[in-house]
Amino acid sequence: MTSDVTSAAPSARVTRARRGGRALLEWVVILLVAIGVSFVVRAYAFQTFFIPSGSMEPTLLVGDRIVVDKLSVDFGAIHRGDILVFKAPPTENCGGPPVTDLVKRVIGLPGDVLTSKGNTIYVNGKPLAENWPHTEPLGPAIGRVVVPANHYFMMGDHHDDSCDSRSWGPITRSEIIGKAFLRIWPLNRVGSL
Asked: Which of 19, 75, 177, 190 could form a disulfide with 85 if both were Cys (CB 3.0 to 4.6 A apart)?
């Protein structure tokens, strides 16, 4: 009778060990799938960005973190007033450390004619209604600019302290990463843009 008891105990331990190993394998697979999904989402759908300068003040402050929707550019339209994150143009040289990505607001759409006089921006001969927070004075004037097809004229909301399309010209649609739609940091400023 003792031989039956000793043979049953190792069998129960083996079964528990197999279950434990299977559970560990399931958790490893779940973790790998979650990491894979997060990489796909970041690459094709949403990405977070850090605001390093004051060129978009008062809308975005230094240290803010924003979420960018990449799909809205691929499958949607770009409108005047949208805040975009885009690859820094090769001609961007506004002093300071080099940057790879910039965030600015769309002022001019393909085909628009832009000019400025004093602190007023004109789009197709009409004053631009800046229905978003921004600071004056305008700073560098906008000479007569015709925005080419598939290009966008970008400016920071802090007009006088923004290195933007007035310096390096309109950007191409292919340089656009996505539309900023949500501020997630700091917590006391969380909200849509």
From this structure: 177
